[in-house]
């Protein structure tokens, strides 16, 4: 039997996400933007809820193409608010448009969003060595700083807890527990 982090259920979609995505470093700007939007959509909900709707989000938000999203009309926003395939929260939907604008400004200013976001961890993933999921923090000084900077730069739904979940999701931090086959010490 494969040892995984204890939060993983027997759902094939969850297993695939854990085994192939969670904690794997992402440097692609569009994927980084998508994950930031999805983590924001998760606020107050479970990741499982969002993961099940991820494909619907990709369709609804033009594959998270920020250039298209910044041009959304009121009609398009109303269509999104009525879309049963996504979380129909007006503020969360609007935040994707707000974040797309901020994201494009960051790309212009820094050359890439990856360069900007990875600077919070000195462009190197943080590899933790947690014995149990109980040891894994929900925020850190880095997620606090990231949240503060993202908000200053115009992003919404980027509190410290969301930022830490984001860091885990895009591999800026590897929080696979020591017993998990995905922890780097088990892959050497």
From TrEMBL:
Its Gene Ontology biological processes?
base-excision repair
**Positions bound to Zn(2+):** 5, 18, 176, 180
According to the UniProt entry, its GO molecular function terms are:
DNA-3-methyladenine glycosylase activity; metal ion binding
Q: Which Pfam families match?
A: Adenine_glyco
Question: Is this entry keyworded Hydrolase?
Answer: yes
Reaction catalysed? Hydrolysis of alkylated DNA, releasing 3-methyladenine
Sorted keywords for this record are: DNA damage, DNA repair, Hydrolase, Metal-binding, Zinc
Q: What is its EC number?
A: 3.2.2.20
Principal EC category: hydrolase
Which InterPro entries does the protein's record reference?
Adenine_glyco, DNA-3mA_glycosylase, DNA_glycosylase, Tag
Keyword Zinc recorded: yes
Role, per record? Hydrolysis of the deoxyribose N-glycosidic bond to excise 3-methyladenine from the damaged DNA polymer formed by alkylation lesions.
**Protein name according to UniProt:** DNA-3-methyladenine glycosylase I
* Organism encoding this protein: Lysinibacillus halotolerans
Lineage of the species this protein comes from: Bacteria, Bacillati, Bacillota, Bacilli, Bacillales
């Amino acid at each position: 039997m494969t040892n995984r982090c204890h939060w993983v259920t027997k759902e094939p979609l969850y297993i695939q996400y854990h085994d192939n995505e969670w904690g794997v470093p992402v440097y692609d700007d569009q994927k980084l933007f998508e994950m930031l939007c999805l983590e924001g959509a998760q606020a107050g909900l479970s990741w499982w809820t969002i993961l099940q709707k991820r494909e619907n989000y990709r369709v609804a938000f033009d594959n998270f193409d920020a250039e298209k999203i910044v041009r959304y009309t009121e009609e398009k926003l109303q269509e999104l608010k009525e879309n049963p395939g996504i979380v129909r929260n007006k503020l969360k939907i609007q935040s994707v448009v707000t974040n797309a604008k901020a994201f494009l400004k960051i790309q212009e200013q820094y050359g890439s969003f990856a360069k900007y976001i990875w600077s919070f961890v000195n462009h190197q993933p943080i590899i933790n060595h947690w014995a149990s999921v109980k040891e894994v923090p929900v925020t850190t000084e880095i997620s606090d700083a990231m949240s503060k900077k993202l908000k200053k730069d115009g992003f919404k739904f980027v509190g410290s807890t969301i930022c830490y979940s984001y860091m885990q999701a895009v591999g800026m931090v590897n929080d696979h527990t020591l017993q998990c086959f995905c922890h780097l010490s088990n892959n050497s």
